[in-house]
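To make this tangible, this section ends with a sequence with its structure tokens:
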Amino acid sequence: MKTKPLLNALIFAAGLLACALSQALTILPYEAAAVAKAQAAGEPLALHFHASWCPTCRAQSKTLEALKAEPNLDLTVWVVDFDKEVELKKQLKVRSQSTLIVYRGSKETSRQIGSSAPDDMRATLRSAF
């Protein structure tokens, strides 16, 4: 029995989508234990210090959402509540909301403050690779 060309195309497209999703930027709320586990495993990740009242943070969030569709950004961005995570801010010397810190495991590879430009954020995130 021959498979119809449309069905073949759909199967192929589903495979491509699965590959794309497996290598995509993921955005999650900050969880200390999950970040520690990812760092211990040597994974690429980023911490985005975000405040709901901050217009730059909102612009950065929109840029990060747009970057989800890009290939080769296979890392997790953990969104840290700037107002609530006071001890983490002190520990990492974060003085401003809209700070993006990128890691490969526990090694910091880049830090960016205040830019929501896609090229800037993309370059900062790629430092983890």
The longest helix spans residues 5-22. The chain has one domain: 25-126.
